[in-house]
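Subject: Sanity check before I submit

Could someone independently write out the structure tokens for this chain? I want to compare against mine line by line before I put it in a report. The sequence has 158 residues.
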Amino acid sequence: MTTATQPVRPTTAADLTELVGTELGPTPWYSVEQDRVNAFADATDDHQWIHLDTERAAASDLGGTIAHGLLTLSLGPHLSSQLIKFDGFAHSLNYGYNKVRFPAPVPVGSRVRMRVTVVSADEVSGGIQVVTSQVMEREGSDKPVMVAESIARVVAAS
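---
Independent answer below. Compare away.
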């Protein structure tokens, strides 16, 4: 496994293939604050108390409100774009995820960062499918807060 300077900017399928097995990162720390959690709850209509009710959450075994797991996942495109940019291609799209896990919570007020490893880069009809392993860690925690296998499709510039 090798490490690269960020952000890397591949422009061809060969560039992407060379990145297979390369760990990128970590990103700078990103603060997860209550206002972002509240906005995510409003955007998704997920108003579970553990994310929003600071008093009730403080009395829980978690000791305070936590970010939604899907909020953590949704930070993936922003954070991974700090590590790898597809701006040398016509465009790139999120294609999906093969696996997503949230091994530990993200307490509101904590900071997270991401590491990305390029797992594969395969030519497919209309472009290149890039699979990356995304691992998000929380400052001060031994356990990752999110582990996901992300799939992107990129289209070569004409």
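---
OP: Matches mine. For the report I'm noting this point. The beta strands are 2-4, 22-24, 30-31, 89-101, 111-124, 127-138, 144-156.
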